[in-house]
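In the previous chapter we treated chains in isolation. Here, by contrast, the input contains two separate entities that must be folded as one system, with a combined length of 998 residues.
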Amino acid sequence: MKNSYPYDRLLKRFERVATINECASVLGWDAAAMMPVGGGAARGDQLAILAGLAHAQLTAPEVADDLAAAEALPASPDPWPAANLRLMRHAHMRATAVPADLIEAQARANSKCEKVWREAKSAANFSLVRPHLTEVVKLVQQQAVALGEGLGMSPYDALMDGYQQGIGASDVASIFGAYENFLAENLPLAEQRQAKQQAPVKPPGPFPIATQETLCRRVAQRIGLDFDHARLDRSAHPFSGGTPTDVRITTRYDLADCSQSIMAVIHETGHALYERGLPRAHARQPVGEAAGMGIHESQSLIVEMQACRTDEYLDWLGRSLHAAFGGDPKHYEVENLSRLWRRVERGLIRVEADEMTYPAHVIMRFRLERAMVSGNLSVADLPGAWNAAIKDLMGLTPPNDAVGCLQDIHWYDGAFGYFPSYTLGAMAAAQLMAVAARQIQGLKTAMGLGDLSPLINWLKANVHAHGSVMGFNELLTAATGKPLDPTDFQAHLRARYLS
Amino acid sequence: MKNSYPYDRLLKRFERVATINECASVLGWDAAAMMPVGGGAARGDQLAILAGLAHAQLTAPEVADDLAAAEALPASPDPWPAANLRLMRHAHMRATAVPADLIEAQARANSKCEKVWREAKSAANFSLVRPHLTEVVKLVQQQAVALGEGLGMSPYDALMDGYQQGIGASDVASIFGAYENFLAENLPLAEQRQAKQQAPVKPPGPFPIATQETLCRRVAQRIGLDFDHARLDRSAHPFSGGTPTDVRITTRYDLADCSQSIMAVIHETGHALYERGLPRAHARQPVGEAAGMGIHESQSLIVEMQACRTDEYLDWLGRSLHAAFGGDPKHYEVENLSRLWRRVERGLIRVEADEMTYPAHVIMRFRLERAMVSGNLSVADLPGAWNAAIKDLMGLTPPNDAVGCLQDIHWYDGAFGYFPSYTLGAMAAAQLMAVAARQIQGLKTAMGLGDLSPLINWLKANVHAHGSVMGFNELLTAATGKPLDPTDFQAHLRARYLS
């Protein structure tokens, strides 16, 4: 029986770790949404202390003993404690694989590099940050090797595993290769088709911020967010944070454009509802957490891209927007909004990309970071390699590095292995939606009323409630009958942009 | 030398403790000002974990060894490390004096009692909470005995010491006895004098909340709060929290009355500026912290009561209010505002009391809680004893316990020994102001322009910058030439209400 004494002690310990991480999550939200600028230095120390305390809990000598003792007992027939113990072992391996002095060196190097990156980006001058990124990559290589040895994985897989367990670089490489071929063939076709259509009109606004905020709140609520357990605030970059019983989403408002704030809220609401739907019976246990960043992204994208950019939902949203902001009703008709908000466009900037070209941004980053981690690409050669890759994938040449290899914070903050999650999420979202659309009666009718509850209930039952009792492909198989199948995403794009 | 190895280790450890406490402080602010109701249960766990982690840092076996080793070295000629080491020893004694199971029992009992108190207060039914308060008091008695043994103090003194070091119950008892006599003689005189004056007019409002908020922010800023290191938000009860480089003050707004929000902001700004003015060179060291809750209250009250209720400041404030809200200018003239906001009035409710009768509320609580801690007053007898005390001090009889012994959260949350700090603060504020007014050139002229910087700079130099390198009476002696002298407060009241 797994619920013997050592397992109970482990539960208690992981509950402590999760609670410390909750503190860090709320403080992270505060730093982005509330904190005055002068609080930054102290907040950095606070988060570092919490990270250290959580790490110390995971690496305490008793953990290894308790894990060994719990594993020595006959496995429980209940999949939850069995998965829990597996995930505890996994977390312990990750925490103990990297020496403490390397962790500290990384914290210092990442923090320094991230600061300099801000200057380098605003000066469009990669050389400013090159030595710092070189140091960051050197330490990431050491981290990846150490993690890989501990986990029995290749170094880059070990980094990916930190964001999404259960899918490796070789799987991703082949999925991405196929998508590259798909894109080479279909992006020109989508562009040709689009060129023949009437150009959409951007509603001219202005869009009073207070009205946007009220509408965003209403939209999030109607999608399913309960503000007894949530907040909506502002930050420079929209994100979802907080804790499962107290989720905090943010957006940003532009007086001249209401689409940014609303689409960001819709996206973050998808993330937030996933956290809200995690199994409460396993709260603060590894098995009660989200199943990884790829799955997390699938839950935001199924709401934002799969559901809320359908004609049905856009019809409701357009009417709501017109009721809120007035102006020419033509601008808010689904014929216009669908052409405006379902538009493919080659661009240099990942975060502004449409759903068809977004994976291209991810694919090139995946290849470049994998090459940096393996040592096949030096940091000095990054700008050239970046520009070659985006030229190759989209035929574009960045005028400077600020809109090239300096655009994303990730690498400069030490995050390698995260980028694939975005596209894995987009693909998983399409695959889940294909099945949900078949299984849910009245889905389109409800969406036409702005009501996503049928979809959210389906996601709760088929994704959220499972926590991480299953891995990436297991979860997809349970929900859709097959592991990740990238052709569902291609079919979605064909239906939306080519037919 | 005190900065040898064990002392450095202690510095590092206390820095860790302070940083954990900073996390708790921001999360506490969030709970009161931001958190959706559904986050309450998880937040309770988060704060409990942080308290446990901080406590574990203080009680680790190495601390005793390092303290002993550091203390065995020749004392530093520099008073800061010497005081620091003394305060570390003190913190360690407090942390180790109380057994862990008693701390846990208190956390549970206090939390339960506080919840039931809310019901009991809204039902005006003391008997609901009586058994819970009985349990709380029983555990507080045990805590007080344990602390008293560790610190070599009487049990009640050991509780007081947790809020304000350096002043004990016997000092307070004689100070309070003298004040009781002062009040018996002078409150009727003040009332008679007031009765002969024209009654003040409450400006009728309404006072739009957004305008109040803008004005509150401007007032706080003009007093000296830098919003690069501060926030102003709303909460059910105004408070000051956060950390020295990121202070968070709150207030509440009433559409029908602007005085509440503004006076609360002025008060909390005084607290906030004290935190902002603490010595940065000793940040996160015991000696760099505030010198106790009595001194803290003196810093809010010197701003709110001593400075901002003078004719000079009210003249500026009245003009600012009229500029913001319009209406009859007569209402905002200093002649009216001074009678409105410097008014003595016998009342049942402590938090609504004026500065002359406020100490009476504190005095009776001090006597009642001291009697409960010593066992001379049983919880069952509290309502009767309360009603007798307020009858005796102010000639009033509460119609029910909601406006009697159920009005304050303190005891029901396990806080015994805190109440004296309010009046010690009021008295210290008067004493500091008497000297500041003599030493600062142009103080009144500046106050007439809403500018408190001369006073704040004086407080920074004479109070804030000293952290807790000196005790309560030492600090007052350094700033004013004498230890706490309650006659300064009496003189202030005579000048304001009797002459």
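The CA atoms of residues 241 and 300 of chain B lie 13 Å apart. Strands of chain B lie at 230-234, 240-243, 246-251. Compare these points with the single-chain example from earlier in the chapter.
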